[in-house]
Write a structure and sequence with these properties.
With 145 residues, this protein is an all-alpha fold. The chain is built from seven helices and no strands. The longest helix is centred in the middle third of the chain and has 13 residues, at 75-87. It starts with 18 loop residues before the first helix and ends in a 17-residue tail after the last helix.
Length: 145
């Protein structure tokens, strides 16, 4: 058997460096020392597909809260819905089931927290038999009560 030098190390398999390791400053310096060609490119807007990008427009929107808000259902419409529902002896859940919506939607409309939706108003008017829009709010629909 041949004499083995203890300072000598034999690699059977050497892992190839990953892309991140190849781009490290240490790898770039080593390549420059060896005289290898190093290609550097600057990427603009790299990773620009972010969900939460802060820019000057968001600050402007925050300052303009009064102009850029959604209209809510007025409290008088909420009271009309609540009164008509109670006259028909419906719970909020019963009414929600009849118009194929969640009970939370009815709760929001009665509390004045909901954003008006004409489709939901149509369903509510049809089931409750009361007008919820226009100048004759609260009046019965065409002869029904």
């Amino acid at each position: 058997m041949a004499e083995a030098d203890w300072d000598e190390v034999t690699y059977l398999r050497k892992k190839t460096p990953r892309a991140a390791q190849l781009r490290s400053q240490q790898a770039v310096n080593a390549a420059q020392r060896k005289g290898a060609q190093v290609d550097t490119t600057k990427k603009y807007n790299a990773g620009g597909n972010r969900q939460h990008m802060n820019n000057k427009d968001t600050a402007k929107l925050d300052r303009e809260t009064e102009e850029l808000h959604h209209n809510r259902v007025s409290m008088d419409v909420g009271k009309i819905i609540q009164r008509a529902r109670q006259e028909k002896n419906f719970t909020q859940k019963d009414l929600a089931t009849k118009i194929n919506e969640k009970p939370q939607v009815i709760n929001d409309y009665e509390a004045g927290r909901a954003i008006p939706n004409n489709q939901i108003f149509n369903k509510l008017e049809r089931v409750l038999g009361v007008k919820l829009r226009g100048k004759d709010k609260g009046k019965p629909m065409g002869g029904k009560k």
